[in-house]
Design brief:
By secondary structure, the chain is of the alpha+beta class. An 8-stranded antiparallel β-sheet has the order 3-4-6-5-7-2-1-8. A hairpin with a 3-residue loop joins strand 3 and strand 4. Helix 2 packs across helix 3. It starts with 6 loop residues before the first helix and ends with a strand.
Length: about 230
């Protein structure tokens, strides 16, 4: 596998897609974690305009990052928890992830791609709620923050990207992947922004990477996630 693309652009996701027909039960997350923004809007409520737009993205994320300095997040799955440390020197990516997590975007999304011996990729789903959330949040790209300091080692937490018309290697705002390969995935260095690392739970990553998959490397049984901001 050579790349980690945002599936919103690379394939149509809906309930009729053959990769999701084996799912017998959806697992929407209804509870609100205690660390969600108290005054945040309901991102399932249709809005007149998106929350974020490209023209205002950098100043918004810069300000949001200063007011929300957290760097530790937990990805909760039925296989266990994956704790991730987000890097301070990728400030736009860190702030964006914290923003989405606090607004509940990731809750109810899936690890929707399992590439054996390579990566697990999350942040999307075929649920209508996810599409509504993405529309309400807005369509934007995060400028690349690639760095020689952060490469695609095992356990690296990196941003997916759109493959087409993306010469600047800008990142998808919502899809991420974790490198599972013990050798790393260094062919992705300088193409995808590594903005964190798994500090606990690589055994969970390995278990997820071992699940059976169907077309498009989509797990035969959905792997629902929930994200909490720790500190």
């Amino acid at each position: 596998m050579a790349s980690c693309e945002d599936t919103q652009k690379t394939k149509k996701i809906n309930t009729q897609d053959p990769v999701s027909t084996s799912v017998t039960k959806k697992e929407p997350v209804k509870e609100v974690a205690k660390n969600k923004d108290i005054d945040s809007i309901d991102i399932l409520t249709k809005r007149d305009k998106p929350m974020l737009v490209q023209e205002e993205l950098i100043p918004f994320l810069t300000d949001y990052g200063k007011k929300n300095p957290e760097t530790k997040v937990r990805i909760i799955t039925r296989f266990g928890n994956i704790d991730v440390e987000l890097f301070k020197d990728t400030p736009l990516h860190r702030a964006n992830f914290i923003f989405l997590a606090k607004h509940g975007y990731f809750d109810g999304t899936f690890f929707h791609r399992v590439a054996k011996g390579f990566v697990i990729q999350g942040g999307n789903s075929d649920n209508p709620e996810t599409a509504l959330k993405r529309n309400n949040i807005g369509s934007y790209l995060i400028p690349s923050e690639t760095s020689a300091r952060h490469t695609h080692n095992r356990g690296s937490f990196s941003a997916a990207k759109y493959a087409e018309q993306n010469v600047s290697d800008a990142s998808s705002p919502v899809e991420f992947f974790i490198v599972q390969d013990h050798r790393g995935a260094h062919h992705l260095d300088n193409e995808h922004t590594v903005y964190g690392k798994v500090v606990k739970g690589m055994d969970v990553v390995d278990e997820i990477n071992n699940q059976e998959v169907g077309q498009g490397e989509w797990p035969l049984i959905n792997i629902t996630i929930k994200v909490e901001v720790l500190e």
